[in-house]
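idk why but the lab printer keeps eating my pages so im just putting this in chat instead. protein + beta-D-galactopyranose:
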Amino acid sequence: MYFYGTFPEDFTWGVSSSAHQIEGGWDADGKGPSIWDNFTHVPGNVNNNDTGDIACDSYNKVEEDIYMLRALGVKNYRFSLSWPRIFPTGRNNSINSYGVAYYNRLIDGLIANNITPIVTLYHWDLPQALQDIGGWESNELIDLFDSFADFCFQTFGDRVKFWITINEPNVISRLGYGNGLFPPNVKEPGSAPYRVAHILLKAHARVYHTYDDKYRASQGGVIALCPFISWAEPKTPSDPRDIEAADRYLQFLVGWFTHPIFKNGDYPEVMKWKVGNRSELQNLPSSRLPVFTAEEREYIRGTADVFCFNTYSAKIVSHSTTRLRPFSYEYDQEVSVTVDSSWPSSALSDHRPVAWGLRRVLNWIKEEYGNPPIYIIENGVGKKAKSDIDDNARIFYYKTYIDEALKAYKVDGVNLKGYNAWSLMDNFEWVDGYDPRFGLHQIDFDNPNRPRTPKRSAVYYAEIIRNNGRAHLHHHQL
Ligand code: GAL
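predcted complex ->
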């Protein structure tokens, strides 16, 4: 059932992207290599051996990108800063003025067109030089990330008032250090993700405090982190064990980061209990889940001004009926759940649309964290097709997801402040290369000029924005 209504006047509509996925210019003007540059240069790592070397060539197309944003009528544009474009070696003794100039051009162009920048400091493209000293497994990264963030606040913060520290720290931890799908390709699911998450949380908190101490008073912005969330629907909603399993799934997926930040500075009880117990069964001297000191808990608690998240699909979860295997680090064993296979678990492609899951996730955040202001930072659907200009499936996706967001806001009283579509245009979809495509605009990757063409979904989304959420679907559109 559709709900008809509109969002409040100050609701912010936008589209999202990230540096490595669109910029190209991977070694232009002194940019240093990132872990993704090097990873994609090894044949066999990425679907079709695609790379982000040129991508959408956004490094050379500020005007073209702003033109698309204007045509959509967005109020904000969420993009990320490439750390190695600004600090080629990752450190602030190697500032690349061309990189700084690029982001200044982009930010100035946005402001001139009344488009609010939402800027992610870290969307996965770590400077290789910092991976060489241990990457996110090293505590040194806390200082180094802080020094990069400090430079960005100082340089861009007069115009940027909305900062995201880390995009999907939960995905970085699990895909970079658990199954090893993403660089740095560490496959230690039982321990490395927890150790890395511990450091990411501290790095996030440090950057938040730097903003608080040095910049907030003069710049007056907001700062948050942005986890990935899939709604977990209990398989049998009348079975309390499934309800618990679904909640446990969410705690391991997202509470991992948001419980410390939005609650008490510490991991969810169920995580401490489960991982601790299983570690004991394995005769380990201590839990594989690291422990925060009281001081660290105090330091981490409250380090987000708003609740940002990305979401694409949902999962069906039930309590685990398989016999406990304490030495298996398979996710379902660690969390003691069974994740229904009818909704594919592939992290990257084939995001099955489950629009009502968005309403439930919004209500879960509201209940769990005391009705914080919420921003949906990424939401969209990928399609495997070279050209999908007539992307009715994407229109349907946006229509239904936005309608569920509207219900959450209007009917359920969720404090929803903004919605961003992923993505402004087709782009480099990590290990999937240029297939599937998530864009509202099509990019012709065979053409060196990388022409941008609006899909029907772009026209549709522009209409949603114009009508502040009310979607007038005409017969000829579907
Ligand atoms: C998110 C990620 C984006 C984009 C999207 C589509 O996890 O933040 O960079 O790739 O998925 O799969």
